Amino acid sequence: MKKGINIVWLTEVDLTNLNSGEGESNYIDVKKYKKDGIEYPYVSGQAMRHYFREAIRRITDKYICVPDDKGETCGDIEKCIGCDLFGFMLPKKGSGSSVRVSPLKVSPAIGLLSFEDNSTVDFLTRSKYKEVGEKTGGDIVNIEIGTNIYKCGISIDIERIGGEEEINDEKRELSIEPKVEDNERKERIKLILNAIRYLSDYSKQARLLTDFTPDILVASYQDNYSHRLQKALEIDENRNLNVNRLKEILEDVGEYGDIYFGMISGVINNEDEVKNMLKDLEIEVLTPNKALEKVMDSL
Questions:
Q1: Three-state DSSP string of 114-136
Q2: Which of 160, 186, 155 has its CA nearest to residue 1?
């Protein structure tokens, strides 16, 4: 196997609030960042990791431990795919802690369209009950919701899946000792890739039904570990994908990785221009799911 897999994708969402900020008790806002004085929504990396963990839990019967009341996990990467893929920090007796850095890197999901131009405030009611069946009134809660196109990304450090860093004190060398067989490592990587297709456990989904899976996706299976591909997808307020940026990044990453591209129609306005550029680079345009399957077949 090669050293890394990088995936970046765009997803268009309907009215939703995927990750709340720090609003007052009767006002639920959307997390936002500012760029050039304009506010855009985002979903934190912590929330994205939670979505991935729950998606993997849904699609496999392999063991994934549940953190205890102190938030600590089992730390057994050979047995527990959750501890292997997402890392952990466990206190040691005496002092210090045992730390595993996650081989699965997950970016925040960045909204690419301004929040002000693509949002509204909705309200919901919260009923209060004195006793079972005895209603005493309720509160009105305002909630920010918006439509947008989000950019999301992951990076998989293949060598560290199912492996543990070990230091040779005598030679002062670091090596990665495998704790699982290669076939098991491949299956764990495939779980991550499949999870992208089934992300669903977002907040407030009882009343805001959201699909956060890819509409436009670029993936690379790389000889060298790099996050370069994360800069490939950029759109403007007119929903045009920056074709020059995409071409330059693909040519760059293509020097040390195999590129796969997936897209469904209706998300960006310059689809034909993007397809023509990809044809010139001899990159086949697939659907996002087919592109992910191609990565899995390459392992």
A1: CCHHHEEEEEEEEEEEEECCEEE
A2: 186
User: Which amino acid makes up residue 181?
Assistant: E
- The residue whose two tokens read 């592109």 is 291
Tokens of 20: 């709340």
Between CA 164 and CA 179 the distance in angstroms is: 7
> Among 216, 150, 153, 151, which residue's Cα sits nearest to residue 13?
150
Q: Count Cα atoms within 13 angstroms, Cβ side, for 171.
A: 6
Digit-by-digit pLDDT tens for the chain (299 residues) are 899 999 999 999 999 888 887 666 688 899 999 999 999 999 999 999 999 999 999 999 999 999 998 889 999 999 999 999 999 988 877 667 788 999 999 999 999 999 999 999 988 776 665 565 565 556 788 889 999 999 999 999 999 999 998 887 777 788 899 999 999 999 999 999 999 999 988 877 777 888 999 999 999 999 999 999 999 999 999 999 999 999 999 999 999 999 999 999 999 999 999 999 999 999 999 999 999 999 999 99
- Residues 139, 122, 203: CA angle, nearest 5 degrees: 85
Q: What is the DSSP string of 275-299?
A: HHHHHHTT--EE-HHHHHHHHHHH-
CB neighbours of residue 86 within 10 Å = 20
Burial label, 208 (beta-carbon count in 10 A; 0-12, 13-18, 19+): middle
Name residue 155's amino acid. S
